Amino acid sequence: MHILPIHPTIGALALSLCPLGFANQQDIAGHDDRSEAPHFEIAGGEENTERFPLKSTNLEARISGVIAEVKVEQTYANTGDTPIEATYVFPASTRAAVHGVEMRIGERRVVAKIKEKEEAKKVYEEAKRANKTASLLDQERPNVFRMSVANILPGDEVKVTLTFSEKLTATERVYEFVYPTVVGPRYSGAATARETWVGNPYLEEGVDTPATFAAKIKLQSGLPIQKLSSASHQPEISFKDEKRALVVLPASGEAANRDFVLRYRLADSEVESGLLLHCGEEENFFLLNVEPPERVRPEQVPAREYVFVLDVSGSMNGFPLDTARMLMRDLLGGLQSTDTFNVMLFAGENRMLSKQSLPATADNIRRGTDLTGLARGGGGTELLPALKRALALPQDEDTSRSIVVVTDGFVDIEREAFDLIRRERGKANLFAFGIGSSVNRWLIEGMARAGMGEPFFVLQPGEASRTAERFRDYISSPVLTGIRIRYEGFKAYDTQPQSVPDVFADRPIEIVGKWKGNAKGRIIVTGHGGGGPYEQVFEVSTGAGSGLENPALRPLWARERVRVLADNSMVGSSGRRGGVDEESKREITSLGLTYGLLTDYTSFVAVDETPREVLEKLRSVQQPLPLPQGVGNSALGGGQVSVGVSASASGLTGAAPEPGAIGLILVTAIGLLMRRHRVQG
């Protein structure tokens, strides 16, 4: 066999370029441990072992006023020949206050107990070793839970029911109930210590999970319901009367690959505002919903600088990036001639349209639109370096800056992002746009809170234009500023939040707290909005007249207090990163134990005390998850880190070329040198 000799120049070029490419890929992908990175579920597995223990998820919700009471029943079964331990990672609403879990095996019912996380884990492991059926519910993130069920014997069926409450908020006079069904694959950089849940296996694109999802929602309002629809599914909707409706989604596996989103509007675009009270055995709670004034559009909108930060990583490839392009087109098209702007694309690395922000001329806007149009999804999601660069850009003291982040949020560095934004944002506001069918809402909402901005969600391309229009409205004029809450004759305490930020959206102000003594006095809300001074007065006696039994307020207050503590400290899920605020950790733990609430530091554990006859070694099975609708296989890629646009083709400015570009340069250079070698030979 004849081997073509390699020209010395070619060898030197290969040696000089290859290590850089490999090093960058390793930096992004980390070590090659498939158990600690999202990966495909391979058909086959252990022979005669149940691979899909979760058979169904059934949601039942009762929405009354602004409060949703929800029960979620998960059914696990073992149709294989060996005993198993099932682990299932699933999402939850960012507002869910989980305050009850029970397990049923046949006719036996076990109510789970809330314990400190480590103690709950110990109880679960001891039960597992003692051949007892047990379940453990952990919180990995405020919107990501993990259920473990041990000793599911062949032929067993185990049902685990979660109970939670959440409050609904109207935005632009539209109420929205969201139940996420699948956790999207999370990207971890090499510098980050990966967590077990991040490495959950996924099915290939287009493959539905065998587990079905069904929903039944009863809606009751104090005002007539004008419009009711789902933005994500096609449920059956029937009206009992003008104030009551029933929504039913039949069971299917295809329904479990995206958030279930139910939206409704009340007659005359009214919102449920007012005061709810609960008189408990030891403590009393209240929830105040304040309707904001109408937005007044100013005659002149001051010039602003916009820095658009667009995620073009692998998980954004296809439908999410197509939607993001449409959104960016509308956002850029809405700029005023007095505005300035810049665009950053990020994946494994990041690139800027220009070294400094450009005037919003027709030519520059076309450059920005062309840039986003050329972008293709691929590579990791290095969000933190992108945020650091955007936040560090030089700023004109006389110009207000808005940083706009557009992403699906499939990363596991949420708290680091929040902390970075709080530390470095200066006078800028940060707005976050979540793109796709199963967005990481905790990241999007948290970044917006940390950046004193607003979150937006775009589920499908048809929503892009309207969302861009809402953003322009928010920027042009806040609805209410300088908000103050005053209590007269009403002994309120432990109110959350303690200070209310400016309101950009047409959304009610929510205050939750405790109260002592008699249900009397007044709550006075003041601020500036609607073109002048704003004041609203709420008589406590009026709220008391509607009843003093609203038990959901108890866990909702505790959940809000936990959120405030977590937002204001670097308390990580297991204290694995950053500085752990021990005082906040202790208070969160105490809140979880006192109010029976699932938190980062408290878990629910249930043990059936009847030992089982386990004849074979227990096998652990991770329930494979479907990829979210519109998310491709590239979301599970490891080392490819190209942002998809060459610097020379787009006018981008930035750091060194990425490994994909380096490889292309290398192949081209070798081809040219080989051609020259043949000619010389």
From TrEMBL:
Ranges where the VIT domain occurs: 38-166
Entry annotated with the keyword Nucleotide-binding: no
InterPro entries reported in the protein's UniProt record: VIT, VWF_A, vWFA_dom_sf
UniProt domain VWFA: residue ranges: 305-475
Keyword hit for Coiled coil: yes
Superkingdom as given in the UniProt entry: Bacteria
SUPFAM superfamilies, alphabetized: vWA-like (SSF53300)
Keywords, in A-Z order: Coiled coil
Coiled coil: 110-137
PANTHER family the record matches: VON WILLEBRAND FACTOR A DOMAIN-CONTAINING PROTEIN 5A
Name assigned to this protein: VWA domain-containing protein
